[in-house]
Amino acid sequence: MLKAVLLFFNFASLFIHLKKKIMKQTMPINGKFSLAELPYAPDALEPVINAETINYHYGKHLQAYVNNLNALLPGSPFENLSLEEIVRKSNGAIFNNAGQILNHNLYFSQFAAPKENNTPSGRLETAIKQQYGSFNAFREAFENKGSTLFGSGWVWLSRDQAGTLKITQEHNAENPLKKGLTPLLTFDVWEHAYYLDYQNRRAAYLAELWKIIDWEVIEQRY
């Protein structure tokens, strides 16, 4: 009897864990996508990212991608699909705009007010330490990928189906979804993401972003 109870709870725990692994789908409303709401005020991330950068990056760059995608979708095979499915299946202009919407949604929704000594906890902390030895070693590897990406793009922390963590460089609008990975954390290394705050000092921008990561959001994605 005891074995049966333990087996039930093991299966229940696995089921809950697998449910959490299903990436949330972003669906159009009446055939159109809209600008995702920020979970904080435009000045909440200062001095790491200032309100002017948020207003331009989120309010203008991201809005333009949303407008472009909505204009491209009618009559296409991707009409009424989720944003995530469009990213997985499309290419060309539709992919470029859909990919940038998804990338920016994940980027902007992972932030909170700055905190010193801001580090992960829970299962994600354990996984990072198991794979990289320490959070500092992981951070160094992640920043290096961001600093060495040539041109424009994104550096990502993702997980595969086995739960193994992967750090990848993705150019332009690419997203780890295209590789069968689940994206967890991303730093935008397109120049417009940091130029008003850091000019050409990409490495300084990458080093500061850790202060505003909301690790509870990243843990939920994991």
Keywords:
three-stranded antiparallel sheet, 9 helices, 9% strand, mainly alpha, 222 residues, globular
Tell me the span between the first and last alpha carbons.
Answer: 33 Å
Low-confidence stretches: 4-20
**Spatial strand order of the main sheet:** 2-1-3
The strand count comes to 3
Radius of gyration: 18 Å
Beta-strand share of residues: 5-15%
Along the chain, the helix and strand elements come as HHHHHHEEEHHH
Protein model, in words:
- The protein is mostly helical.
- It contains 9 helices and 3 strands, in the order ααααααβββααα.
- The protein has helices spanning 2-21, 51-72, 83-89, 92-108, 122-132, 135-148, 195-198, 202-209, 215-221, and strands spanning 153-159, 165-171, 182-188.
- Strands 2-1-3 form a 3-stranded antiparallel beta sheet, sandwiched between helices.
- α2 (51-72) runs antiparallel to α4 (92-108) and α3 packs across α4 (92-108).
- The longest helix is centred in the N-terminal third of the chain and has 22 residues, at 51-72.
- The radius of gyration is 18 Å and the shape is globular.
- The two termini are 33 Å apart.
